[in-house]
Amino acid sequence: xxxxxxxxxxxANWLPRLLPVGLKLVQLRIKDAEEDEVREQITLAQELCNxxxxxxIINDYWELAIELGCDFIHLGQEDLDDADIGxxxxxxxxxxxxxxxxxxxxxxxxxxxxxxxxxxxxxxxxKEMHWExxxxxxVRRWKEMVGHIPLVAIxxxxxxxxxxxxxxGADTICVVTDVLYNESPEERLQEWLELSIERQAE
Length: 202
Known about the structure:
This protein is of the alpha/beta class. 46% of the residues lie in helices and 18% in strands.
């Protein structure tokens, strides 16, 4: 079962700040780095997440994740084009997959993933998106279609918008900038964790 709050970081150096606050689900998403640097970052993230009993998910680098003994990866649709799903499953890794439309959802469901992500729920400043914001209604539709598979909502989400998206059926809310770009990332993370604890208790 996924934690209802999910943070993405672009560098393992965030983890000494965020893990002591109580973060229990984090994705390491590194872009445009040499393989040796990625290997070092994953190794550091593993050590820190093990120390704090936090689930670490590696974005994209599935071969390194297998090599280094990770247990969970996340793949985008473009990543799926080059990934060896059989090798990933044989290595025992859990798998999360990004989706943005129904064709991508069908592709993801065929893989029997451990979660499906839908985004962007709201407009996001993180990167240029080719898809219109999904909104709460599509979150509701996706949850009906994925059934028992955990649904992760991502994109433009904030503490203030979270309740609507949880109520629409998201099992987990994933953020990047709402914490990392905040003036006080630790305090913002604490707000998220308090909200997620309330959701778990319901």
